[in-house]
Design a protein that fits this description.
The complex is a heterodimer of chains A (228) and B (182). With 228 residues, chain A is α+β, with helices and mostly antiparallel strands. Chain A contains 9 helices and 5 strands. Classes of the chains: A alpha+beta (228), B alpha+beta (182).
Chain lengths: 228, 182
């Protein structure tokens, strides 16, 4: 059986995506708001009465994969609906909640966020996140990694630091992001296909000869030059 | 001193600030590996208080923070949850791992189609009126519920009216609610 192209794979994903079917009208929903980019519907299995799902009309699996203009628009709509959700539900407030990945509770791989009406004594989740779950040495290591990565990534995103990496910086970044490095090493073609669709990675690899970088990364790993 | 300044100063003293710019700052926390709280530099309390630019900015920071959890710590998922601890808007970015023991889910209810439609109408109506949560009035603790004190539909569909006493109660509760999420 011939391998599917990426376009064919996406068509298949969309054909099986329940939220794409809600957007197209194939599945029924109770709409709250709609424009060209997003659709907001009543959640049929809410934590609280009046819970709304805000989803993109286009199929994007996760928050980081949203195009920049869609990203900005989604949160403006969520902001503008937040007061209405509380008022329409006779609640005291609204809580925004996003799950990315099954371990976080994302049940449909199509980006969506919840606007959850909150009221006194509603007993809903997350009123207490655990404290002290990370060992001090791991916390210190996390601080080092996050401080470095966020400063560079967000500095480039917001244009406060030069927005291109040199090769050495990219190697360093790969060492600090083992999941990305592993993907590049084990599935180079998949990485190259995914790259233009991921705004954050596209920013990182802006101006980089990706094929040449992959070859150098592989050679570096083979010679034991990188760290894991 | 503003509350957000107090939070910033404490995080700075504890050396737990992992990112900051003119719009927001992120504080490393320990509910899971890579957990952080992202605060605005301004004294925003509700999402509806945010300007367009600041809103996009703080969610970009949270999104990048979430991506770090995947890329650097091999998290299996991430939750981004709005939190208004201490009267200040905050986004908890919580990397999730298999069997991490964190419970952020809920027992789903199953409202009838009629209930959904009725509430949807109310939300659309409020949206058309431009309802906000204490926009421009974050320090007073005013809320939509307090502002909508001239009646509404409760969870049973019954007409409900709110007296000025209940408005005061709402204001007091508002203080309690937004403080009790750690």
């Amino acid at each position: 059986m011939a391998e599917m192209t990426q376009e064919e794979q996406m068509a298949q994903i969309k054909a099986n995506c329940p939220f794409c079917k809600i957007v197209s009208g194939e599945y029924p929903s109770t709409k709250v708001y709609e424009d060209d980019v997003v659709l907001a519907v009543m959640d049929i299995r809410p934590a609280a009465k009046g819970q709304v799902l805000v989803m993109t009309k286009e199929h994007h699996p996760f928050l980081p994969t949203l195009p920049p203009e869609t990203f900005a628009h989604v949160f403006k709509v969520a902001r503008d609906l937040s007061g209405a959700v509380a008022k329409g539900s006779i609640a005291h407030g609204t809580q925004l909640y996003i799950a990315s990945g099954q371990a976080a509770g994302q049940t449909v791989m199509h980006f969506y966020l919840y606007l959850i009406p909150r009221s006194e004594g509603d007993g809903l989740f997350m009123d207490s996140l655990p404290i002290g779950k990370v060992e001090p040495d791991k916390l210190a290591e996390a601080k080092k990694i996050l401080s470095h990565n966020m400063k560079i990534s967000l500095g480039k995103r917001f244009g406060t630091i030069e927005d291109t990496y040199n090769e050495e910086q990219l190697f360093s970044l790969m060492d600090q992001n083992p999941q990305v490095k592993e993907m590049i090493l084990q599935n180079s073609d998949g990485f190259k296909e995914a790259l233009p669709k991921n705004p954050q990675l596209s920013q990182v690899f802006k101006g980089i000869d990706v094929d040449a970088f992959i070859e150098k990364l592989k050679a570096r790993e083979a010679s034991g030059g990188g760290s894991s | 001193m503003s509350r957000v300044k107090e939070i910033y100063d404490k995080a700075k003293a504890d050396d737990m600030i992992i990112y900051e710019d003119l719009v927001c700052f992120a504080v490393l926390c320990d509910a899971s590996l890579g957990h952080m709280k992202v605060y605005p530099q301004k004294e925003y309390r509700y999402m509806s208080d945010f300007s367009d630019d600041d809103l996009e900015h703080i969610f970009i920071v949270a999104s990048y923070g979430a991506t770090m959890g995947f890329e650097a710590f091999k998290a299996a998922g991430t939750n981004i949850v709005q939190n208004s601890l201490d009267d200040v808007f905050c986004l908890d970015v919580v990397p999730r791992y298999q069997d991490d023991g964190i419970t952020l889910g809920w027992d789903a209810t199953e409202p009838s189609p009629d209930e959904l439609a009725t509430t949807a109408d109310k939300i659309q109506e409020a949206h058309a009126e431009g309802a906000t949560l204490g926009a421009g009035d974050a320090d007073t603790g005013s809320s939509v519920a307090a502002e909508s004190g001239d009646g509404g539909i409760d969870s049973t569909g019954k007409e409900e009216s709110r007296s000025s006493a209940s408005k005061n109660s709402d204001d007091q509760w508002q203080e309690k609610y937004f403080r009790r999420i750690p």
